[in-house]
Amino acid sequence: MITTTNPRTGASSATDVRETTVAEVDDLAARAQAAVGPLERLGRDGRARLLDAVAESLEADREELVRVADEETGLGEKRLNGELSRAAFQFGLFAQALREGSYLEAAIDHAGETPLGPGPDLRRMLLPIGPVAVFGASNFPFAFSVAGGDTASALAAGCPVLLKAHDSHPLTSLRSYEAIARALSGTDGDGAPDGTIALVFGQDAAGRMVSHPHVRAVSFTGSLSTGKVLLDIVNRREDPIPFYGELSSLNPLVVTPGAAKARTDDIAQGLFASFTGSGGQLCTKPGMAFVPAGPDGDRVVDRLREMTETGSGHVLLNKRIADAFGAISTRLVDAGASVAARGPDPDADGFVVPPVLLTTEAADLTRELTEECFGPLVVVARYGDVKEVARAFEEMPPSLTATVHAEDDEADLVTELTRVLEPGVGRLVYNGYPTGVRVSWAQHHGGPWPSTNSQHTSVGTSAIRRFLRPFVWQSAPEAVLPEELRDGYTGIARRVDGVLVPAGAGAR
Amino acid sequence: MITTTNPRTGASSATDVRETTVAEVDDLAARAQAAVGPLERLGRDGRARLLDAVAESLEADREELVRVADEETGLGEKRLNGELSRAAFQFGLFAQALREGSYLEAAIDHAGETPLGPGPDLRRMLLPIGPVAVFGASNFPFAFSVAGGDTASALAAGCPVLLKAHDSHPLTSLRSYEAIARALSGTDGDGAPDGTIALVFGQDAAGRMVSHPHVRAVSFTGSLSTGKVLLDIVNRREDPIPFYGELSSLNPLVVTPGAAKARTDDIAQGLFASFTGSGGQLCTKPGMAFVPAGPDGDRVVDRLREMTETGSGHVLLNKRIADAFGAISTRLVDAGASVAARGPDPDADGFVVPPVLLTTEAADLTRELTEECFGPLVVVARYGDVKEVARAFEEMPPSLTATVHAEDDEADLVTELTRVLEPGVGRLVYNGYPTGVRVSWAQHHGGPWPSTNSQHTSVGTSAIRRFLRPFVWQSAPEAVLPEELRDGYTGIARRVDGVLVPAGAGAR
Q1: Interface pTM (ipTM) of the complex?
Q2: Residue B475, Cα to own-chain centre: how many angstroms?
Q3: CB contact under 8 A, B475 and A100
Q4: Considering the entire predicted model, what is its pTM?
Q5: Hey, are the CB atoms on A440 and B472 less than 8 Å from each other?
Q6: What is the secondary structure of B210-236 as a DSSP string?
Q7: What is the CATH number of domain B253-430?
Q8: Neighbours of B20 (CB within 10 A)
Q9: Which chain B residue is nearest to residue A469, measuring alpha carbons?
Q10: Residues A82, B470: C-beta atoms closer than 8 Å
Q11: Which of B60, B109, B224, B297 has the least C-beta neighbours within 10 A?
Q12: Is B313 helix (H, G, I), strand (E, B) or coil?
């Protein structure tokens, strides 16, 4: 049977959930495959309605969901209430994206003469890729798990979803699944087809999902090591499929001399909040901060030291993360970092650790000092010249984000840092913090390997594109075309004969 | 030294080109990496100007390029002139796409209150992914080789290109490279940066390109077996990169009973032209045709038989393809296909083969009978009921395209065939032929594995997206933003606060 563990106490208890067998996964995958056509034929409006219903269903179960998640993750009710709001918002946002319809990338080239001779009528749009395997993440029991953005974007795309519950929160996964399934069942026969969503538990089921011939894409947020295991399974398939992995990120933050001087306390407080928030278990946590040498930088570090020394303990999500926190802290010190401060030893059972502040010199930075550490730990690297930051950045693996804190009169420095940081990240933050990722149309969550392994995103509306494939109808009779590709349809923006035509305009 | 072979005679001769060493690839990759920033900073207009110059340069060298390519490929001057026009057109089309600018997917979410609290300013667009390795294809010495769509789309994206010359046309590759390099050198210092384009020869250089840390994507059009070798190299990299492979495609074509009766001769002639054109060496060649049982279908087959029996020999591109043509023909017969017709044995040296018409029963179709055969060969599968087509289609690997020939009064049958064929292809052609791929905005060239291994396309303007990655600036000072993301810029379509704003409209 599956057990659930309270990270505040370390105590485990049995649940009435058992591991899903490989044969059961095969059955669920067959049902998902059978749902592909019916789910697509629900259309954009039909699926938007279902997504709105999921958002409502999550809200209706808020109290129970947050209670269970708090017991399983120790993240606290405030954070979990915020995260559940985000999860519900994501379903609603994808409903909006469906109704807006640009995501289809509808395009029509009418038949006609071209510089290369007569061209046939072509009509292109994106279609659902097929059943998708989604892995829940430990650190977001709602927003990156069963009720997460991957589920929302896959369902929006029209793809049935096979969900792997994370071992750290099996009951939260189950309750989330139940809330979603209830909404998808609809009322009066207007629900999603059978097979649209399924939940599996256990490693064997996870492996089978990734290798199953019906599964057309895999979405995973988690550790680099587990990601590589799954990617190896994908690579051994007869037919490779997209693996959207979000794996590891150090998220360097650079404080310029001007910023260290002008906003000493603000930056120290903001950085402390960012590297300790949610127990430092966010994929966008700033794990390394570059602070200038000299008295202004010293004061930033002093403030960080004070906050760290008096900081309370943080509950980590599970024993594996807590053990790794200790082991990686030790490795970082062995690699040359100094322990500048460490919070009081927590007087608690369970997976509770103090905040830790390490320091080093940017000029001495090695690859070993750039190991990602989940948990409330930051490495502060002191630099004399911005060239040391550039060189250090070359030692560092790419990240989801980088951050620059600078003053208005440091424009040239900001330009230089932008140029240095841009190639190695997917998002560049100015005078803010990388945690607290906005869910919106212009967002992007991804970066060069190992932060992610594709150009795509797992936050924001463009996440939907991961689960779509282009399709072209050539010289097709109108009856077989989706309505979005018929002449005269004006409900969505389309590219017609190379020209972008907004919704509601230019019917032809 | 590299040799060149005339496929009409089989005679090889030495060239003054030698294989590129691994050390030379390393040097070229370093120069390509150094070109990334300068090429990006040329901007959309700067790169569009260069692409137009490449198109002009190819046109200026037309006579020599076609002459050399004809000697190396045997494809004939008419086809090669058409293909060179297409290659030049592709560079011009991507210049248009650059000036139009939608491909950047520019999006702005202004800072403001959101349902989840205050949201920061986010500005997203696509940036070049970095140096790209492009493999020339044997069957398109221009349009899918050094001067091909992959080169055009990668340069348009702002990515330096490392080109692998195909062994079948080394001199065409070299001459094409010279024409492109001359255009890129510009006049009066307005050219592309050093390192923007490089040409390599030989297997060792090819392998090194794919494994080189600076290379950020690989684009390959060729055989499934070579594609798998390259994909294995990609999978062994420390950092996996996108591999855009276009590998193998059978392109089934279905003739309905109504079409067989109404357009017997037209369909037989069209199919014959489509499976023998360019020696049957097109990735979209219809390799299998479903023709109804009964007298109308018999007449279609009879007409195909007549044309095949009197058809002239076709020069294949190289010895490997010619040998495989013989071997696969034999395997198809061993698997149960009957030789319905075969053209006269060619009275020529070199790699010349006759057209071949094989027949089988759709009800008996096995995986062995669906092997792709490059060259002028088609397998006609006779069917009694459309259910046999559906079942046979399940035996078949996915393809780039499928084609339906049907009459207006067969609407239900067309709907049924559309539903059967859609999941296994990327383009569905009605009452036409899959060869002769239109290069345009709405085109898509791709399909489920093994036809391609990604959702992306190697024909049409959306090919550019393969070489771009999303990037977000959060709360950035205007000075570091690309002009396309600044407030008030109206030169391209953008999504502003979730709303699509066409170019020239709605400045904010």
Answers
A1: 0.96
A2: 40
A3: no
A4: 0.96
A5: no
A6: HH-TT--EEEEES-HHHHHHHHHHHHH
A7: 3.40.309.10
A8: 24
A9: B455
A10: no
A11: B60
A12: coil
